[in-house]
Amino acid sequence: MHCTFLTHPEVVVDPAVPIEDWGLSPQGAARAGRAASVLPRPERLVSSTERKALDTAAVLARSWQLDAEVDARLGEMDRSATGYLDPQEFEPTVDAFFARPLESVRGWERAVDAQRRIEQAVRQLVAETPQRSIVFVAHGGVGALLLASFTRVPIIRELDQPGMGSMFRFDPTRWEALSTWQRIAWNSGSADATDRTAAIPGQGPGVKPGSSPTPNPTTSGASTTTNAPIPTTTAPTSETSAVSSPRSPTSPAARPASPPPGTAVIALENRARIGSSAIPAQ
C-alpha cells in the first residue's frame, strides 16, 4: 500500500490575515485541480486543518468523490510566536529552524518536535486502515521533516519542496520514500515542463526554495514552509478521480520500481519558470 504526501499550492499572501487563514490563489486552485487529474485516486483523503490545505482537499474531494478528513497534527510547524515575518526575516529564520532542529528558533516549534508530530500522525492514520491508500494534504516544512524520516537522513533544508503544490510518494509499511519531491504543473500545457525536483542528499543537486524581496497581499509560490496548527474541525467536503503515478524512486531507502502499467506520469513544472518576484508563503 502506497501513500502520497501533497502540499497545498500557491496562496494569497496577506500579512493582515492570520497565516493559518490564508486561502488558495487562483493559480493555486488551478494547480490543485491539476493534482486531482494526475494523482491516482486514493481510498482516503486527510488534510491539515489550515485553510490553504482545506481548500486544496476540497478540490480533490469533489474531483475524487471522497469525504475529506481533517487532522490538526498535519499542520505546519507552529510559528505563532512570531506570526507573519517579512521575507528578509522569514528566510533566515527558516534556515535556522532546519539547521538547529533541537532549538526553538524565535519561539517556533522545534524541528524535532514537529517531525515527531507528523510521524505520529501518519503512522496512526495509516494504522487505522492499513490496506487503504491515503493522500495527505499538508505543508512543505513538515513534509521536509517527514521526508528526512523516510530517507533516514538528518533534518536539513535541502529536503524542502521545490515549490508549493509538490508531492512525494511513500510506503508507510516499510517507512521509506518511493520518490523525492515532484512539483505538479498548474496546467496541462506541460510539454516544456522540466523535472526539477528537490534531491535527496547523495542523489544529485537539490533545488532550494528561493525568496523574494517584498511582501504584498498577492499570490505566492516560491518558498515552502507554512503556518501553525489550529484546532481540529470537521468540515470536510466531497470530490472524482484521475490517474497518474510519480517516477521511479530516487531516495537511498527506496527500491527502484517502474510506474504501474497504464498510469500517466505527473506533469512537473520547471521551478525556474516561477517568477523571481514570488513571495515566500509562510
Kindly summarize this structure in a few lines.
By secondary structure, the protein is α/β, with parallel strands linked by helices. 25% of the residues lie in helices and 11% in strands.
Structure description:
- The structure is a single chain.
- The chain has 282 residues and is α/β, with parallel strands linked by helices.
- Helices cover 25% and strands 11% of the residues.
- The chain has helices at residues 26-38, 51-64, 87-99, 111-128, 140-151, and strands at 3-7, 11-12, 44-47, 68-70, 134-138, 166-171, 176-177, 182-183, 219-220.
Fold blueprint:
Layout (H helix, E strand, L loop, with lengths): L2 E5 L3 E2 L13 H13 L5 E4 L3 H14 L3 E3 L16 H13 L11 H18 L5 E5 L1 H12 L14 E6 L4 E2 L4 E2 L35 E2 L62
Parallel strand pairs: 1-5, 3-4, 3-5
Antiparallel strand pairs: 1-6, 2-9, 6-7, 6-8
Task: List descriptors.
alpha/beta; single chain; two-stranded antiparallel ribbon; globular; 5 helices; seven-stranded mixed β-sheet; 282 residues
Structural class: alpha/beta
Strand content: 5-15%
Number of separate helices = 5
Oligomer type: single chain
Sum up the overall morphology in one term.
Answer: globular
Distance between the termini: 32 Å
Low-confidence stretches: 190-197, 201-223, 226-279
Biggest β-sheet description: 7 strands, mixed
Helix content: 10-25%
Q: How many beta-strand elements?
A: 9
